[in-house]
Amino acid sequence: VQPVESGGGSVQPGGSLRLSCGVEESAPNYYSIGWFRHVPGKEREGVSCIRLDDSRTYYANSVKGRFTISKDNAKKMAYLQMDSLKPEDTSTYYCAAGVAGATNCPYPSLADWGPGTLVTVSA
Question: What contacts 16, CB < 8 A, 6 or more positions away?
C-alpha cells in the first residue's frame, strides 16, 4: 500500500518544514520508514530513515544536525523535522516503507513508495 506524504512547501533559507508519512496499519514492526529525495539529473539520495522496531536511524551527512526523524508506532507515522533549511535541500521528497536493511533504511527495490512532496527553499 502506498505511503501517504504531507508537509512539503516553500520556505526561505534558514526556515523549517515538517514532513509526515503514514503507512498501512498492518505494516510490520520490522519495517523501516525512510525519506529519500531526488532532483532530476541527479541520483536519488537517502535523507533519513527510522526502524519501527528499535528506532535506529540513518541520516545523510548533508542533513545531520539539521533534520530529525521520529515515529509514532501506534499511528504508523513517521515525521521528518527539517530545520535550518538550505537552497540545496530543494527537491522532491519521497517516503518509502519496507523491510529494513543494514543502513536502517528500507531496501529501495522492495519498498512501497509515496508519490512525493515538493520542498522548495529559496529567498
Answer: 81, 82, 83, 84, 85
